[in-house]
């Protein structure tokens, strides 16, 4: 059974750096085709794709946020970390991590973590 | 990349069929058969209901079906039930090797 859980601060001040950790079980990020992604959702708004890291350490970022995001993995700890620099109140959102399988003719985002709400406020 | 365009809301009566559209560009939906659909009930995480345009994960009702024509993908819910009332999001792989989500559609069961 695959599970993912997001963790990190619930409150961050503007201009600070936000660090979120996705701890997962039931799969390995060294397996061909496997990836972990991050998606966020501001209160009452739509989902927004942020970043993905693949089993071979390939990394992709949302073009609009690329300069402020960094995604890394620690396969020994089964963790993926997302950092966002210089946060702003518009970054207030529920942040989700998700297991991704991408191989050949298949790409699926499943399952998702429960999400963690991060509020940016002074 | 701009978000994929979905209607803000769609409604239907129990038993009816409804269709939600998801319009992108030739850089995403129009080129790749990597369109997914997610269902999200209030206060919960999104759930995958369709991937690769038409494929249904194990355990997802066959009342949900997907299709694509040109730059527009569609999700059809047949035999609408009260439990289908939720927000629905599409997503697509893009030519930049990234992903993009849709603007979201609120489905109301009348």
Explain what you see.
Chain A has strands at residues 3-7, 11-12, 18-25, 34-41, 48-54, 59-61, 69-74, 79-84, 93-103, 106-112, 116-120. With 122 residues, chain A is mostly beta strands. In chain A, the strands form two sheets. In chain A, strands 2, 4, 5, 6, 9, 10 and 11 form a seven-stranded mixed sheet that branches. A four-stranded antiparallel sheet of chain A has the order 1-3-8-7, with no helix packed on it. The mean pLDDT of chain A is 97. Chain B has strands at residues 9-12, 18-23, 35-40, 47-50, 64-69, 72-77, 86-93, 99-101, 105-109. The relative contact order of chain B is 0.34. In chain B, the strands form two sheets. In chain B, strands 1, 3, 4, 7, 8 and 9 form a six-stranded mixed sheet that branches. In chain B, strands 2-6-5 form a three-stranded antiparallel sheet, with no helix packed on it. The N and C termini of chain B lie far apart (35 Å). Chain B contains no helices and nine strands. Chain A binds chain B through residues 37, 39, 46-49, 52, 60-64, 96, 105-115, and chain B through 1, 3, 33-34, 36, 38, 45-48, 51-52, 55, 57, 89, 91, 93, 96-104.
> What's the overall average pLDDT of chain A, rounded?
97
Portion of residues in beta strands of chain B equals 35-45%
Cα Rg of chain A: 14 Å
Q: Care to count the β-strands of chain B?
A: 9
The helix/strand order of chain A is EEEEEEEEEEE
> Mind summarizing the main beta sheet of chain B?
6 strands, mixed
Largest interface: A-B, 24 and 26 residues
How large, in whole angstroms, is the Cα Rg of chain B? Answer: 13 Å
Oligomer classification: heterodimer
What is the tally of beta strands of chain A? 11
Shape summary of chain A? globular
Low-confidence blocks of residues of chain A:
none
| Broad structural category of chain B | mainly beta
Number of helices of chain A: 0
Helix count from the secondary structure assignment of chain B: 0
Structural class of chain A: mainly beta
Helical content of chain B (DSSP H or I, runs of 4+): under 10%
């Amino acid at each position: 059974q695959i599970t993912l859980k997001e963790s990190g601060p619930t409150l961050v001040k503007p201009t600070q750096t936000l660090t979120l950790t996705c701890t997962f079980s039931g799969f390995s990020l060294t397996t061909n085709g496997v990836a972990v992604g991050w998606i966020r959702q501001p209160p009452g708004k739509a989902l927004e794709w942020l970043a993905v890291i693949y089993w071979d350490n390939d990394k992709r970022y949302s073009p609009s946020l690329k300069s402020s995001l960094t995604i890394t993995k620690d396969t020994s700890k089964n963790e993926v970390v997302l950092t966002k620099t210089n946060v702003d109140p518009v970054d207030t959102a529920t942040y989700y991590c998700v297991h991704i399988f991408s191989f050949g003719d298949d790409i699926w985002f499943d399952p998702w973590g429960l999400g963690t709400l991060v509020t940016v406020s002074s | 990349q701009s978000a994929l365009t979905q209607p803000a809301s769609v409604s239907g009566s129990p038993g009816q069929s409804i269709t939600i559209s998801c319009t992108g560009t030739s850089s995403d939906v129009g080129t790749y058969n990597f369109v997914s659909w997610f269902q999200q009930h209030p206060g919960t995480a999104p759930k995958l209901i369709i991937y690769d345009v038409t494929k249904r994960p194990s355990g997802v009702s066959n009342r949900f079906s997907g299709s694509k024509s040109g730059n527009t993908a569609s999700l059809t819910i047949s035999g609408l039930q009260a439990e289908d009332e939720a927000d629905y999001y599409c997503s697509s792989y893009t030519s930049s090797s990234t992903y993009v989500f849709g603007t979201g559609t609120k489905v109301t069961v009348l």
